[in-house]
Amino acid sequence: MIQQINSRIRQIPNWALYLLGAVPVVWLYVQGFQNALGPDPVDVIEHRLGLWALWLLIAGLCISPIQRNTPLRLLKLRRPIGVMAFMYVLVHFLTWLVLDVQIPSQIWADIVKRPYVTVGMVAMLLLLPLALTSNDWSIRKLGSKWRQLHWLVYPAVILAAVHMILQAKGFQLEPMIYLTVVLVLVGVRRTPLYRRR
Ligand code: HEM
């Protein structure tokens, strides 16, 4: 059974994964244009894209622990998931920039004055070099430096979860749960159990 799942995963072409990953964002925008997202569609799009981005980042963090502790071979999915996570962050950011803030002078003011925006920006900028180097050519060129560079994903995901907490109105349990999940997934990598294998 597990062998079958592994061989099915191996057979999935990357383009199909990217196509599948694009469905939620396209669907969200289609709903927005059809006025099916309530009175504030931009706000809904912004929030849902942010959530998708965080889910994908968390999914990316889950791959390696699953690979190490179960017979499931999911490594093939890590790069497409990571690249798609960044795409969602980018569209989330562009939605904010183009459809929400709009006024150029307000953009910088928001980045500097609103802590959640500042933290979100730092998280996105940390992910940028990872997205740019998620290709075979960069892996070959960078050699062992590639691994060191991709360590940036950990502070980036932690900051993304902090960004979610900061943007929430008042105390909310859901962002706290996300931060806890992220801290556990990052923390587990530092345990001897994880490093021994
Ligand atoms: C790694 C990068 C990022 C991730 C994973 C992320 C994720 C999220 C999440 C999960 C939410 C809350 C969604 C909800 O509760 O429904 C959110 C909200 C938001 N994010 Fe991000 N975000 C990132 C970067 C950014 C950046 C760079 C900006 C803009 C500069 C930004 C602007 C916003 C805005 C405007 C909101 C909604 C705030 C509100 O309604 O008051 N995010 N983001």
Task: Please outline what is shown here.
With 197 residues, the chain is an all-alpha fold.
Tell me about this structure.
By secondary structure, the protein is an all-alpha fold. The protein has one domain (2-196). The protein has helices at residues 2-11, 14-33, 41-69, 75-101, 104-113, 115-132, 136-142, 144-150, 153-167, 173-187, 192-196. Helix 2 (14-33) runs antiparallel to helix 3 (41-69), helix 2 (14-33) packs parallel to helix 4 and helix 4 crosses helix 6 (115-132). The longest helix has 29 residues, at 41-69. Protoporphyrin IX containing FE is lined by residues 43, 46-47, 50-51, 53-54, 57, 89, 92-93, 96, 117, 120-121, 123-124, 127, 156, 160, 163-164, 167.
Helix content: over 70%
Low-confidence stretches: none
Bound molecules: protoporphyrin IX containing FE
Largest sheet: none
Could you give the count of β-strands?
Answer: 0
Quaternary structure type? single chain
Run of helices and strands: HHHHHHHHHHH
By secondary-structure content and strand pairing, the structural class works out as mainly alpha
Q: What proportion strand?
A: under 5%
Mean pLDDT: 95
Structural shape: globular
* Count of individual helical segments: 11
Total count of domains:
1
What gyration radius follows from the Cα positions, in whole Å?
Answer: 18 Å
**Distance between the terminal alpha carbons, to the nearest Å?**
25 Å
Cofactor: FMN; heme b
Domain Ferric oxidoreductase: 49-160
Subcellular location: Cell membrane; Membrane
Keywords: Cell membrane, Electron transport, Flavoprotein, FMN, Heme, Iron, Membrane, Metal-binding, Transmembrane, Transmembrane helix, Transport
